[in-house]
Amino acid sequence: MRSIWKGAITFGLVNVPVKVYSATEDHDVSLHQVHDADGGRIRYQRRCEVCGEVVEYAHIDKAFDDGDRTVVLTKDDLAALPAEKSREIDVVEFVPSDQVDPIMFEKSYYLEPDSRSVKAYALLRRTLEETERTAIVQFALRQKTRLGALRVRGDVLLLQTLLWDDEVREAAFPALDEKVTISKKELEMSASLVESFEADFSPEKFSDDYQEQLHELIDAKLEKGDALDTAETFGEDAEEGGGEVLDLMEALRRSVEKNRAASSGPPKKKSGGKKKAG
């Protein structure tokens, strides 16, 4: 894993330098759109609704509208705002772990101790474990102030970003106000059904069947030769800059492929082996 950020957990006079890593990753197959008639890539353009011109990213500003009025925020306007550049994960309080509602959890990050802070890291981890507390922290990541929960997962400190209180909706459903009578027999039968499904949670028992079957479908099509030459799915104007591609990763990938093709000379004959989708 590669760290995405470096900082320090701070509470009182204690300072624990750490490296931050994403704790999760996405394994979904990445798909793009093509024309069903000829397999050509579907391209997206940033087109101005006033003049109709395709606008380069350098000439695009951000804006806010309240329904009646629009406020344009230039790059200089945004640059004038105080940037959040602090490298501290500031502990503001320690709360009972069961008071943090899981609905507030957003993204998870592992924290690795710096070589100079192993003992302080272990002390904080042990303290959280024995007190059954979660540290509520504030920190800045990607120029945004964030609220987070610092807790223990195995031998590692786990930082989870939290939604702000006003980002969690209240559930107000009229049907829940209706008076319902549940008999003792119904409750016993329901409890019996729950008991028949009882188990210890083992996430490794579960898999994403859709993604697995999607991989199998792609592999089967590749094995049958039911595929297009990727280079042929781009039109001639793709090399002439006829419209800006919205997906930055797609644009970067195409640039890499083009440079590789230019530097490798004539294409080599492909073997008939099975390719893996990925």
Can you describe this structure?
By secondary structure, this protein is of the alpha+beta class. Among the domains are: 174-205, no CATH class; 213-264, no CATH class. 23% of the residues lie in helices and 24% in strands. The protein contains five helices and nine strands, in the order E-E-E-E-H-E-E-H-E-E-E-H-H-H. The chain has helices spanning 75-79, 118-131, 184-196, 209-223, 248-264, and strands spanning 5-11, 14-22, 62-65, 70-73, 88-96, 105-113, 133-141, 144-153, 156-162. The strands form two sheets. The protein has a seven-stranded mixed beta barrel.
Please tag this protein with its features.
single chain, extended, 24% strand, 9 strands, two-stranded antiparallel sheet, seven-stranded mixed beta barrel, 278 residues, disordered C terminus, 5 helices, alpha+beta
Order of strands across the biggest sheet? 1-2-6-9-8-7-5
Distance between the termini: 19 Å
Mean pLDDT: 83
Order of helices and strands: EEEEHEEHEEEHHH
Which structural class do the helices and strands define?
alpha+beta
Beta strand count: 9
Please summarize the sheet with the most strands.
Answer: 7 strands, mixed, barrel
The shape, in one word, is extended
The stretches of 5 or more residues where confidence is low (pLDDT under 50) are: 241-246, 267-278
Task: Please outline the helices and strands.
Layout: E1 5-11, E2 14-22, E3 62-65, E4 70-73, H1 75-79, E5 88-96, E6 105-113, H2 118-131, E7 133-141, E8 144-153, E9 156-162, H3 184-196, H4 209-223, H5 248-264
Parallel strand pairs: 1-5
Antiparallel strand pairs: 1-2, 2-6, 3-4, 5-7, 6-9, 7-8, 8-9
